[in-house]
Amino acid sequence: GCPQSCNNRGNCRRQQPSDSSSLAASDWHCVCLGINQWRGDACQHSIEKDCSDGVDNDGGNGLVDCFDPDCCHQTDCATAATCKGGAIAKQVLLSESPLPAVSSFEKRVKFLVGKESVQLGYSPGSIDPKQISVLMGRLFLPDGSQLIGSRQEDARNPSAGHSLSRPDGSFTLVVSASGGSGLIALSFRRSYTPNRSLQAEVLLSGVPVGAFLNLGNIVLTPADAGTPMTIFSAPSSIGSSSSQFPQVYSEKR
Prior knowledge:
By secondary structure, the chain is mainly beta. It has helices spanning 89-94, 105-109, and strands spanning 10-14, 28-32, 38-39, 45-46, 119-120, 132-140, 151-154, 162-164, 170-176, 184-193, 196-204, 212-219, 230-233, 236-239. It is built from two helices and 14 strands.
């Protein structure tokens, strides 16, 4: 069945099987009642709805008004800096000129970096085109909120620029992988209150060149605000240099 019986705030439903095999208990899930009322695997977390009263109304995640991702869908927070998400890679790609059918990894991900693109503040020459890789992942708060507006960069190479997490918490960052011979200090920072920030740092080693790496889900905890934490991670490649981003090829002549 469902965890905690959905706390009487949702209906426990079983997913339909995709084949003839039997379903496991994990196929049960909560469908929370009401529109934008509750969330979480057991509907245990309320959703912030009053975004201009200076109060944390959704059960104590520590985020008030426009600092809470829930409020980024409200008109009160439409222009708030904390609700500004990064560009969507696929949308940027559609505005680019077609590539030749055979192109290097560097040329195929170059569109991610530059003004009006995914990665901002890039200084020419700060990323070696022969050592390039792309990091991806999703950011969450402990209550399951998808974290928009977090700033990501390689703290050891800040001149390579930064990206912002999107409304669904996803992020993309182009880095110089150094063929796995050096460390990448992937830092995250997002305003938590007017005077404090959520901060985290992930040290990555052995990052292969010419690959897309998925770091999975990363949770930033408000209790750690102002105190960067270090996580040692061994990333795994989720795609070769020929996958992940759809390519718009020019016709062969």
